[in-house]
Automatic annotation (TrEMBL):
Protein name: Leucine-rich repeat-containing N-terminal plant-type domain-containing protein
Pfam assignment, any one: LRR_14
Record keywords: Leucine-rich repeat, Membrane, Repeat, Signal, Transmembrane, Transmembrane helix
Originating organism: Aristolochia fimbriata
One GO cellular component term noted in the UniProt record for this chain: membrane
Domain Leucine-rich repeat-containing N-terminal plant-type: 76-116
Predominant place of localization: membrane
InterPro entries per UniProt: DNA_repair-toleration, Leu-rich_rpt, Leu-rich_rpt_typical-subtyp, LRR_dom_sf, LRR_N_plant-typ, LRR_R13L4/SHOC2-like
Ranges for region Disordered: 1-26
Sequence ranges assigned to domain Disease resistance R13L4/SHOC-2-like LRR in this UniProt record: 224-323, 326-531
Organism lineage string: Eukaryota, Viridiplantae, Streptophyta, Embryophyta, Tracheophyta
Source organism, top-level taxon: Eukaryota
Gene3D superfamilies xref list: Ribonuclease Inhibitor (3.80.10.10)
Signal peptide from the UniProt entry: none
Length: 689
């Protein structure tokens, strides 16, 4: 899909190899060599008369080399520390520690353990994701706590207990004693509490990965004063807070810095600009405030910059132009940035994706955007840009996605965009002053996957060239399009999403509509469409594709009754949202509605429905919203329906229901039951016997 092209994960450790890391200085006990046989071979070449003279010396050498042969055996204290760790693990379903037996056994032969020549443990690697003999990834887990005994492995260089999922408890301060540790990988666990200040003693570290835990508290600034070799720091997706310490700028060798998905507040320290070796910087999804420091432009080798979903203010610094040809990904979306887009952004000749969505940027989009010759995705939606769309965008031969929606653009669409032969997704929606008039004819020459032109001033009829297009997502809602839905709409065989709501379409749904076998989301609300709904409910599918996920046909002139087999139609099986309100449907609510087990929202208000509320609806266990107001429903409210677990809204007002409202666990307002003269009981007045 197009989205995957423009929202890449950060580089480096997002997808890292979790297999055991080999150390050039380590040697497994199974590969220890005994050199005594070589010595005896050498002595065999010595003349016999010299044996007597060297008898004492040969005994000494024999003793020395025998001791050397035994030198690879595991250190006893290291073995004890590992077994203490094992005792803290209460579940190990895959037997990751099965070979860890007794202190008398050689721990250097245990799976996941590597030793040096002296028998000291230098690597402990038992990740929850590993590869089997066929190189297929296998996932497992362990339940337990991280023992402080691991701090008693003074020669440890690699500690990898990542992706075990249920490893919990605090980070032991004793880990700070591991002064030789180069790699600390504990990501994808359930560790809690703060990062110990003792970590400042881990002077040999080149990689820390603690992402996707539940760590909390501030970052101790002193920790970053003693990591001269640190290249990777990943603390993402935790609950860490406070300010980002300025001392982070002292990590001169840092290439990868990821703090996203925490609760950091305050400003971005200007000292970040001192990290001249940085390639990835991700501070997204925090609570950072203040402006983007101009020192960010000093990161001349930066490839990936993500600051989205913070509370940053001020303007985009023109110093970003210094990131030049190195930067590939820039996201400043969902902040509170103001001012214009600096023309200097055109100097980012290497950028592939640029996202500035949901800010408060103003002024015109500079023509310098046309200098972004490598860009594949431009996302500027949700700002206050005004003026015309720059014709220079037509120079972007690699552009695949252009989103300028929800701005204040005007002046139509420049014909130069017809040159964008790689364009797959175009969204100009909700620019009401764009005043397009007709759907631009030159769009026919593009191989579009997604076209969104909602509320852009379109008028007239649907252009017939759409029938031969490869468009999968089409949104032309909130315009002034008129006429019948054409029969050729059934030829749009790639459609998966269609939104023609809030227009002036009339007449019945053509039977050819049934040929839209890939359609999964349909929104036709607020038109003047008539006739029966069966061409929609019984359309063809290409299982599992083409089954409805959402369906909004409300506020039209469709007539009923609803077919009794509505719930058993293959096209309707997985539907989650069904909105048919404000149509003169009449008839009863079909019992088969209870067969739509994935339903979360059902709205049938103002449909002139009669009869009772089917008990079968109570079998839709995922329902969160039921709106049946303003009908002619009668009978009692089924307890099975009002007590669906998780139900948040149940509106049956303005009907003819009667009897006692069944006991229910959710506190619904009285207005949801009003104008039913025969109803009584909480939240209405008590029943009179």
């Amino acid at each position: 899909m197009v989205t995957s092209l423009f929202y890449p994960h950060s580089t480096s450790s997002h997808h890292e190899n979790t297999s055991t890391r080999s150390l050039p200085t380590s040697i497994s006990s199974s590969t220890n060599l005994c050199f005594s046989s070589r010595i005896f071979s050498l002595m065999a070449s010595v003349p016999f008369k010299l044996y007597v003279n060297i008898l004492g010396a040969s005994f000494f050498f024999f003793f020395f080399f025998c001791c050397f042969c035994l030198g690879g055996a595991c250190n006893e204290s290291d073995a004890s520390a590992l077994l203490v760790f094992k005792r803290k693990i209460v579940q190990d379903p895959s037997g990751l520690l099965a070979t860890w037996t007794t202190p008398e056994s050689d721990c250097c032969t245990w799976e996941g353990v590597e030793c040096d020549a002296a028998g000291r443990v230098v690597s402990l690697s038992r990740p929850g994701v590993f590869y089997d003999a066929d190189n297929v990834p296998v996932e497992t887990f362990m339940v337990g706590t991280l023992s402080s005994s691991l701090g008693d492995l003074p020669f440890l260089q690699v500690l990898d207990l990542s992706s075990l999922r249920y490893l919990q408890g605090r980070l032991p301060p004793e880990l700070g004693k591991l002064s030789r540790l180069t790699t600390l990988s504990l990501h994808f666990n359930n560790l809690t509490g703060p990062i110990p200040s003792t970590f400042h003693d881990l002077v040999s570290l080149d990689k820390i990965s603690l992402r996707s835990n539940s760590l909390s508290g501030p970052l101790p600034g002193s920790v970053f004063e003693s990591f001269p070799s640190l290249a990777t720091l990943d603390l993402s997706t935790n609950a860490l807070g406070g300010n980002i310490p300025a001392t982070i700028g002292r990590l001169a060798n840092l290439t990868y810095l990821d703090l996203r998905g925490n609760r950091f507040s305050g400003g971005i320290p200007s000292d970040v600009g001192r990290l001249r070796n940085l390639r990835t910087l991700d501070f997204s999804e925090n609570e950072l405030t203040g402006s983007i420091p101009s020192s960010i432009g000093e990161l001349s080798g930066l490839i990936y910059l993500d600051l989205k979903r913070n509370r940053l203010t001020g303007s985009i610094p023109s110093s970003v132009s210094k990131l030049g040809s190195s930067l590939r990904y820039l996201s400043l979306s969902e902040n509170r940035l103001t001012g214009g887009l600096p023309p200097a952004v055109g100097a980012l000749s290497g950028v592939r994706t640029i996202l500035l969505e949901k800010n408060r940027l103003t002024g015109e989009i500079p023509s310098a955007v046309g200098n972004l010759t490598s860009v594949a995705g431009i996302f500027f939606s949700g700002n206050r840009f005004r003026g015309s769309i720059p014709a220079t965008i037509g120079n972007l031969a690699n552009l695949q996605a252009l989103d300028l929606s929800r701005n204040r653009l005007s002046g139509g669409v420049p014909g130069e965009l017809a040159k964008l032969r790689q364009l797959q997704s175009l969204d100009l929606s909700f620019n009401p002053t764009l005043c397009l008039g007709r759907v631009p004819a030159w769009l026919e020459g593009l191989n579009l996957f997604r076209l969104r032109l909602a509320r852009t001033g379109l008028v007239g009829h649907l252009p017939e060239w759409l029938s031969s297009s490869s468009i999968s997502v089409l949104d032309l809602s909130s315009n002034r399009l008129v006429g019948r839905l054409p029969r050729w709409i059934g030829k749009m065989s790639e459609l998966s999403y269609l939104n023609l709501s809030s227009n002036g379409f009339r007449a019945a749904i053509p039977i050819e509509f049934q040929n839209l076998s890939l359609l999964m989301d349909l929104d036709l609300h607020s038109n003047r469409l008539t006739g029966h709904l069966w061409p929609i409910f019984t359309k063809k599918t290409q299982y599992p594709l083409g089954q409805f996920f959402s369906l909004d046909l409300s506020s039209n002139l469709f007539t009923g009754p609803l077919d009794d087999s509505l719930g058993s139609s293959p096209a309707m099986a997985p539907i989650e949202t069904l909105k048919l309100s404000h149509n003169p449907l009449g008839g009863r609510i079909p019992n088969s509605l209870g067969e739509l087990r994935e339903l979360r929202v059902v709205e049938l208000a103002g449909n002139s429905l009669s009869g009772g509320i089917p008990r079968e609806v109570g079998e839709c266990e995922h329902l969160r919203k039921i709106v049946l107001s303003d009908n002619n429903l009668s009978g009692r409210i089924p307890a099975e329906v009002i007590n669906i677990l998780g139900l948040e809204e149940f509106d049956v007002s303005k009907n003819r229901l009667k009897g006692h409202i069944p006991m229910h666990n959710v506190s619904f307002p009285a207005a949801f039951f009003g104008d039913n003269p025969g109803l009584c009981g909480a939240p209405l007045a008590p029943c009179k016997h």
